[in-house]
Amino acid sequence: MSDDRLIVALDVPNVLDGLALATKLGDAVNFYKIGLGMLTGGGMALANELKADHGKRIFMDMKFFDIGATVEAAVRGMAQFDLDLLTVHGDPHVVTAAKQGAAGSNMKIMAVTILTSLDRDDLDASCIKAGNITDLVQERAGLAFRAGADGVIASPQEAALIRALPEAVGKLIVTPGVRPAGAALGDQKRVATPAQAIADGVDHIVVGRPIWQAADPRAAALAITAEMASV
Ligand code: C5P
Predict the structure, then answer these.
(1) Nearest to residue 100, comparing CAs of 76, 116, 67?
(2) What are the backbone angles phi and psi of residue 106, rounded to the nearest 5°?
(3) If you measure from the C-alpha of residue 128 to the centroid of ligand 1, how many angstroms do you get, rounded to a whole number?
(4) CA–CA separation, 135 and 113 (whole Å)
(5) CA max distance for the chain
(6) Index of the ligand 1 atom closest to the CA of residue 178
């Protein structure tokens, strides 16, 4: 019944709420994303419980960035658990170190290109080189792939451009900012529908609030799955 192309972001306040939501969703959802907010409140225990007791797949959205040795050690620690996806920032030295840390496990390293919350003024303030953000995202995606990333996180607007890169063959593209037609946007500005994202070559969509804030989260998840199946 579930479709692994849907990843539900468990951005709920605590582990108990996370487990309650996963129980409510049942076999409608097979893949969950745990972020930094949840990590500090027991996110690893939640990941392990969802994996071991419920048979779910897990995407740890940690966005690691540090010197290579530290990234490698952190990723090696994560790789002891049976996790599916892990994010790091897409800088080549970070990706290379993360791949070394993940060696011997099935955990895939996903690179963040440029945070979608940043605009050109933010990049200027951080001394990031000139150029329009879309071009820089495409360039950083290519660099991350060449450094060995198994995939990238991209906004729906960037997905098709990244999919067109020769380096993207066989790589994963995972996209947040997905909203079923008519759903509230929240703070997401550049959104696509589930069907559009899949048509653009996305492998997994990450959906949070349209599911966990829904009156009937299970029905909301099933509607998204049905929409993806229609592509
Ligand atoms: O509730 P919503 O569907 O907007 O949740 C999307 C999830 O994807 C959240 O966990 C959010 O932090 C994450 N995310 C995002 N945009 C990015 C990267 C991650 O919305 N560029």
Answers:
(1) 76
(2) -95, 5
(3) 23
(4) 11
(5) 49
(6) 3
Pocket of ligand 1 (CB under 6 A): 9, 11, 35, 115-116, 153, 176-177, 186, 188, 206-209
**HSE, side-chain direction, 13 A CA sphere, residue 84:** 18
User: Would you write out the chain's pLDDT as a tens digit for each of its 231 residues?
Assistant: 799 999 999 999 999 999 999 999 999 999 999 999 999 889 999 999 999 999 999 999 999 999 999 999 999 999 999 999 999 999 999 999 999 999 999 999 999 999 988 899 999 999 999 999 999 999 999 999 999 999 999 999 899 999 999 999 999 999 999 999 888 888 877 789 999 999 999 999 999 999 999 999 999 999 999 999 998
Over residues 100-126, the pLDDT tens digits come to 999 999 999 999 999 988 899 999 999
Pocket test for ligand 1, best of 6, 7, 11, 12 (most atoms within 8 A of CB): 11
Distance 177 CA to ligand 1 centre (A): 6
Query: Angle CA(86)–CA(68)–CA(51) in degrees, nearest 5?
Result: 20
For 125, the token pair is: 């303030």
d(CA 128, CA 123): 5
Residue whose Cα lies nearest atom 14 of ligand 1: it is 176
Q: How many whole angstroms separate alpha carbon 112 and alpha carbon 104?
A: 22
Instruction: State the Cα–Cα distance between residues 110 and 130, nearest whole angstrom.
Output: 25
State the distance from the centre of ligand 1 to the C-alpha of 73, rounded, in angstroms. Answer: 26
